[in-house]
Design a protein that fits this description.
- Helix content is about 50%, strand content about 15%.
- By secondary structure, the chain is an alpha/beta fold.
- A six-stranded parallel β-sheet has the order 2-1-3-4-5-6, with helices on both faces.
- Helix 5 (about 110-120) links the parallel strand 5 and strand 6.
- It is globular and about 50 Å long.
- InterPro entries: CheY-like_superfamily, NreC/VraR/RcsB-like_REC, Sig_transdc_resp-reg_C-effctor, Sig_transdc_resp-reg_receiver, Tscrpt_reg_LuxR_C, WalR-like.
């Protein structure tokens, strides 16, 4: 089964370039293009893609608003943000809006394709550079008192998984590292969400830092 992708960017040349590049990938099918957020919401409803590859800055309805509307519709479509604007404000806004991933446009095609597959499978993915910066921002924040995150109830295997999440690995990469199935890796991550009361993958990264499983980025 091909992953059905909707391309959203206000620059026609960017959309054309992505379409040409993705046309070479056997398991990905571009099912539409949109140049505005409003058009993206409409097309997402009409063609029901697996993944919307979403730019952020567009005239009128921007990518954040469009992401929020698509996610709120409650369908199977996932949103993967692909933008040149990777500042913290945009990252946080995209994640709050319900985006399943956040990438920057200078990433290699193989990384973008891999991210499309990851998000289509229901996983979440954030560009490693963005993840490192989010940790760095967290480290800079003054804490009321130094403390260590308790991992009570977390098994040894889940601790290994949390460490790899903290390093920015996807479920597929975790499965490869630990020689387990992707489904098993995904199940471990889901249990970590519950046990650590983490809302999203970024909060798992922070938990891994607080527990001393990963160090601050250099």
């Amino acid at each position: 089964m091909s992953v059905r992708v909707l391309l959203v960017d206000d620059q026609p040349l960017v959309r054309a370039g992505l379409r040409v590049l993705l046309a070479e990938v056997p398991d990905i099918e571009v099912v539409g293009e949109a140049g505005t957020g409003a058009e993206a919401v409409r097309l997402a409803h009409e063609v029901v893609p697996d993944v919307v590859l979403m730019d952020l800055r567009m005239p009128g309805t921007d990518g954040i608003q469009a992401t929020r509307a698509i996610v709120a519709a409650g369908g199977p479509t996932r949103v993967l943000v692909l933008t040149t604007f990777d500042d913290d404000e945009h990252v946080h806004a995209a994640l709050r809006a319900g985006a399943g991933g956040f990438l920057v446009k200078d990433m290699a095609l193989e990384e973008i394709v891999g991210a499309i597959r990851v998000v289509a499978a229901g996983d979440a993915l954030i560009a490693p550079a963005v993840t490192r910066r989010l940790i760095a921002e967290f480290v800079r924040r003054p804490a009321p008192a130094p403390r260590s995150r308790s991992l009570a109830g977390v098994t040894d295997r889940e601790r290994q998984v949390l460490t790899l999440v903290g390093r920015g690995l996807s479920n597929a990469e975790i499965a490869e590292q630990l020689v387990i199935s992707v489904a098993t890796a995904k199940a471990h991550v889901a249990r970590l969400f519950t046990k650590l009361n983490a809302r999203d993958r970024v909060h798992l990264v922070i938990a891994a830092y607080e527990a001393g499983l990963v160090g601050p980025p250099h």
